[in-house]
Amino acid sequence: xxxxxxxxxxxxxxxxxxxxxxxxxxxxxxxxxxxxxxxxxxxxxxxxxxxxxxxxxxxxxxxxxxxxxxxxxxxxxxxxxxxxxxxxxxxxxxxxxxxxxxxxxxxxxxxxxxxxxxxxxxxxxxxxxxxxxxxxxxxxxxxxxxxxxxxxxxxxxxxxxxxxxxxxxxxxxxxxxxxxxxxxxxxxxxxxxxxxxxxxxxxxxxxxxxxxxxxxxxxxxxxxxxxxxxxxxxxxxxxxxxxxxxxxxxxxxxxxxxxxxxxxxxxxxxxxxxxxxxxxxxxxxxxxxxxxxxxxxxxxxxxxxxxxxxxxxxxxxxxxxxxxxxxxxxxxxxxxxxxxxxxxxxxxxxxxxxxxxxxxxxxxxxxxxxxxxxxxxxxxxx
Length: 382
Hints:
Structural class: alpha/beta
Number of helices: 14
Order of helices and strands: HHEEEHHEEEEHEEHEHEHHEEHHHHH
Largest sheet: 7 strands, mixed
C-alpha cells in the first residue's frame, strides 16, 4: 500500500487532471462556440456580448437574451480573444478595437468585432451565410442588375449598419462572376462571402491575413489588372482616393459606405478630406462616379424584412451638382434620370405599401421626402 506522502501526491495529480478537464470543457473557445451554435440553431443574425447583460442574439431586428448570467468585460475578452488572429489581437491591444473572421467546422464562418464600451470589452459577432445570394433572392428592384453591366466607374452602396449592404455587394459580384469572364479582386476586413471561380476568376484579399491595410491592399490590387475591384468599405481618405483613381482609370469599382441616402453618400467621400482637398476630390468624384445605391431593411407585415432603396445612375446634371457641391439637388436628378434606371426611396416605399409589406404611417417615418410619398400614393399612374 502506498505511503501517505506518495498517496497524497497521487491524489493531487488526479485532482489536477480533473480540474484541467473541467477547464477544457468550459474553455473560452468552447463557450464562444456554444453561443454561436445557439445563434445558428435559433436563426439569429448576430451574437451580442455586452458587459452587464447576458449573451444576446439578434433575430429579425429584435434582441433576445440567451440563458446565461450577465457578462463582464473580462468574460467577453476571455471568450473572444482566442478566436481572433494574432494580427487582430495586436490591433485590439493597440487600438481597443479589432475585426476578424472565425470559422467553426460544420457550423460556418463568423465576423467578429471586438471593441470597448465604458472602458470594458464588448463584441458583436455576425453569422456569415455559406451561400452567396442571387440578386433575385434579395427582393431588390430589377434595375439594380444594371449596376453589374457598367463597364467602368465607381459604384457606391450606402446604408446604415445592418441594412444588408454587404449582402447586396456580394450578390452584385456573384452576378458578374457567373455571367462574365472577368478578373475580380475583393479587398475586405474580414472576408464575408467566399466566392467560387465561375466564369470569372475571383481573388479575395483579407486585411490582416493577406495585407496590412486597405491602402496597401488596393495599391497591390490595381497592379493585378482587375476588371472589377471590390472595396469592402470606404474607411479612410487614402482608401477613397485610390478607389476613385482606379475608377477614373477604367476599372469598375464597387464599395460600401455607412450613409442614409444618395446625397449623404456622395458628401461622405468629399467631407472625409481636409478642406483644402475637398474641391479637388469633388472634381475627381464627379468624373469617376457611375452610380449610387442606398438601402434600408424594414420589417414586413407578411414576415421577415424587405429592402427600401434608392438608386441614382449618374447623369450630366448630377455630375455638375457634385462638382459645385449642390448635393441637395441630387434628389431632383434621380427623378430626371428614370430612363437610366434611377428611382427614389419614396417610389420604393410606395411599391412596398401596395405590395402589402408596409403601412403608410411606417413608410412616412422612413421617407426622406414625405410630401413626395403622399403625392405618389395619390397618383393612379404610379
